[in-house]
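Re: your question from the hallway

Yes, I did run it. Sequences:
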Amino acid sequence: MSGASRLPEGPHVGGVPHNDDGVPEPGEMGGIPRGPEAPASRPPVVHALRDAGLAALVALGLFVPLVGLRTDVGPSGGGLILRTRWADVAILVGIVFAGRLAMNLWSSLRPAGRPRTARRTAQIARIGTFVAPLFLGFAVLMPLLPWTTRYGLDLGVLVLTYVMLGWGLNIVVGLAGLLDLGYVAFYAVGAYTYALLSTTYGLSFWVCLPLAGIFAAFAGMLLGFPVLRLRGDYLAIVTLAFGEIIRVVLLNWVSLTGGPNGISGIPRPSFFGLSFSAGGGPGSFADFFGLEPSPTHRAVFLYYLILVLALLTNWVTLRLRRQPLGRAWEALREDEIACRALGINVTNTKLTAFAIGAMFGGFAGAFFATRQAFVSPESFTFIESAIILAIVVLGGLGSQLGVAIAALVLIGGFEAFRDFEEYRMLVFGAAMVVIMVWRPRGLVSSRKPSVALGERKAISGDLVGEGHG
Amino acid sequence: MAYALQQLINGVALGMIYGLIAVGYTMVYGIIGMINFAHGDIFMVGAFVSLISFVLLSTGGWAAGPGAVLLVLLISMAITALYGWSVERIAYRPLRGSFRLAPLISAIGMSIVLQNFVQVSQGARAKPIEPVIRGSVELWHGNGFSVSVSTMQIVIVVVTLAVLAVFTWLVTSTKLGRAMRACEQDRKMAGLLGIDTDRTISITFVIGAALAAVAGTLYLLRYGLADFFMGFIVGVKAFTAAVLGGVGSLPGALLGGLLIGLIETLWSAYAGQDMFLLRELNPAYKDVAAFAILIATLIFLPSGLLGRAEVEKV
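Structure:
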């Protein structure tokens, strides 16, 4: 076994909507047809039962050691002791059996699926044009609504931070098609830039914000240069390594970053020089406008700040998409070789995608630092990158509205299930797999070309092949 | 000198483990052209299954001896192979023919699922076990230093070489191996010629997972600890090893693993010592060293040490 052969996955193969519309996949030519329709003679119910039984058997093998036998450190602190949990195993196996049976019966009863038409995609896009202003209106008015609590406001800030990060990463992944698993590194660079500049030199938030963006963009270029030649999976792994390097350096460069203790006492932003100090007092926001001093003012201010930053990201993205640079990104996503043949400067196009995506990550990082007043390497682990990537992927690569909805659903869901701390990451990972299997283009999978010759047509994302990552 | 020799021995033992995992990455990349991001976590599952089996056997009262270790190894390989098969069946097979990034994203999801599944089912604390294989052989002794090989290190080297020998035989001399190589070269054509490609890919995952289980068991025996997060960093290092050796090349995977193991061990042994430029280095950066090697290899030597250059086709 030597020499990795690249698989023939041209646009035509890559774009075939798979599984449920009768188009044969490459693998199906191999012989045994699989799935519930395998032996034609046997009634579907029997086959479904048999298949579900096999699935249950596999599940039994999977769950008996890891769920059935729980190891715990013994009370004396010595060796491990075992606890058996056969009831849990039985429940899990039962769930797998029932689920598999239901799936089999459903697919044998359901009429053959129709391929998604361009019309349906266009309908979704049309709904989007109504939904987007509604969302925006709600986002703007949210803090003013009488029933909005402090908790709701904080949650809104959190969701908007992820919306902004999602939109920033969308430039790199969704538009330019470069899979970046280390996006959190730029977030970290932005956060530490503000934290260090403000605590060391006493610079204000408004001075540091652009600096954080510039530093992050510079980090993006730094990452971009060496990885220019890499594609797809390799690019993803290198960006992951880059993210980890940044985190390990932050963790170990104690003299600069404080190591695992992080940096605390980061100043809060002011509103044109008016501070949001708790007690009011001269020169504070409450004093100037003659309001009762309240901690809610700062929360509302932070909310609008991140809303403006997120909308700025969105606006810049939408404008850039209409310019030659944005068009080059989208062309690069579809086919790099064709791009090169058409004289697009691939190097510059990739670097700008990395730099601009990173810049918005840096802005979000500076905001994060000022909101928390504390940064530590713990906030910038790989799982953060995975969450941001999941937002972009679930929302539909390249779709601005989809990313916003996905951020709302994911982060809102995380908060709603806060009591099930252990299980929510499990569900999160499963959701990533399910979405990829069920709707690989994400929830809002329309892909409208930003620029088209003549009539503008929306095409389903499922019908477009991807050249390479 | 004795110190260096000792570190060299430690590095080789660690490198063997990386090599075993790297083979799994390289095989899967060769056959379906994707990075099996969850492979590191399959290694972690293997370590946990061994841990549970050891505890089970020791409560039964017969945990000592080579027979017990062999039994645990077999149990772990069987269960972990089942995990490997299930991961492929659930997360990757439905995505054949989907766009290129879909399987990778699905793999990241699967990695998160496996980690958190083990965290939920076995708890977040690191689990220690008593050393099973003890003793060591002293090779050299002199002025204060002694160079010794522990029995465990000998076991690691012997088991790894034996497993890889069987595996090489499987790939080069059996019908299954021929089918695997055929799928690697051209999956569509292999399918047209009557090879059940789906089954071949499944078997590839099963074998990769079994090798990862061996690595997991050896790692557990050597370091005596298992926790749900151990697969991530070991996985990235093993992947680095696969890339360094040349993705798709089996001897390359072992070579890459040995190099990464040596570099990591020597880095922790010598960084920060009062010699030449070494005092500028920080032992805490040993993971950074592995990542830096990964990036440097991909930039300067994209086909690795023993790999073949990839031809770009339109």
